[in-house]
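Predict fold of Potassium channel; 490 aa.
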Amino acid sequence: MGFGIPISYVHRSIVHPGITSFSLGKCNVVKFSVSSTCSGYGGSGVSANFSLGWRRTLASATSGQDAANSYVTLFAVHIAGCFYYWLATHYRESDNTWIGVTMPDFKTRSVWLGYTYAMYWSIVTLTTTGYGDLHAVNTGEKVFSIFYMLFNIGLTAYLIGNMTNLIVHSSTRTFAMRDAIHEILRYASKNRLPEVLKEQMLAHITLKFKTAELQQEEVLQDLPKAIRTGIAQHLFRTIVKNSYLFEGVSEDFIVQLVPEMRAEYYPPKVDIVIQNEIATDFYIVVSGSVDVLTYNNGIEQILSKLESPAMFGEIGVMFNIPQPFTVRTKRLSQVVRISHNHFKQLVEPLIEDVKIIVSNFLQHLKGLKENELKEIPFVTDLLDETNVEAMESTEELQNSERPSQDTNRSNMVQTPAKLPKRVVLHGHHPDIKQKEDNGGKLAHLPDSMDDLLTLAEKKLGKQGTTILMADGSQVEDMNALRDNDHLYIF
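Predicted 3D structure, encoded as tokens:
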């Protein structure tokens, strides 16, 4: 923003024609100062004529409240100096002015020399140094000096308050980080954690504070859902569409999937997925790189290296089995996490997208290295014989040219999507809490009630005849059960 006052018109109206045009130039300097300073200080009101490149340069050199303090100080010093010099040039006796006492011929000297003297006086007065070499002589200058020093009292309080706020804010974050690190070290020492885990915990805490402004959840939690969705689409839509698993899926699927993803940062040499843990999420690499590892007889072996837009953890989710690999970051990496439960709920009604996803997944499995395929636990306790036969049949049908190829393939690719449900088994009545329960036993839901009772006897070590839900209702139909239901068998 700027002040659109026609300075030349004001000059002709109030200045005697015999007075030098020097004052007009000084007024124009003041006009430029007010315009540019207010533009920089206003932020959102920057003139369209002000160079975007210069604004970015200034923004990179100064930031936030520091820039505002600088603008205010320079504005006050510049305007006070210009006005003080204007008083001297318009006083009837040049020798009886603050600058005339020191330099009688100042009107014939360079304008910038006078400007230098004025800025020197303004800064010395603002900082309350007051050397006394330049001082008010006539009444007008003394009155202006009085008001300027009163203004300086308020300006100094404003600047000190802002600087104190900046320092306290920065110190608060530093103290919070220091306390968090202290708690981590105390916890690790008390529980005698190995040095490797301690270093990973410290690296994670440090990275969390460094990337606090980039954390998606903290930034977006107060925004409306529509805005959050738009931001998520802008950030992660391309990376999701480029990942192999979602190649060729519908736009509706992408729109529903992206807002539910969570962005996370991991420092180097940190395990994101651990071998044989329950598959609750899978990930897409946005930036950085990760190593896929396995352990054979306690020996760590690197199987492959993944970079954007590769995926990991999806094998455990798709087959509903423990994760077959450990995935560890090589350097600072950003990944997006997709929940197993949300993914399953999302794909269930989208039959065509399920076919595409499963087809992409099967093609990916065929492209795995031999040492990677050996680590995937295709065993009967995790996948029933129907799923295994369906995958084998799908592979055979892809190399045949029978007329019924498309129909059979549709039937086959739907089969892996019908993954067994996971339930938590407890060996007591839901109203009775037992210390030895320890959260129950996680298992895949079999096809019949008899098989469920047999499985419960095997898992819990005691035979049961009654199956209840957490609310006390009795289970009579296996189809009514959902994923992650708690079943009480006694």
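The two ends are 77 Å apart (CA to CA).
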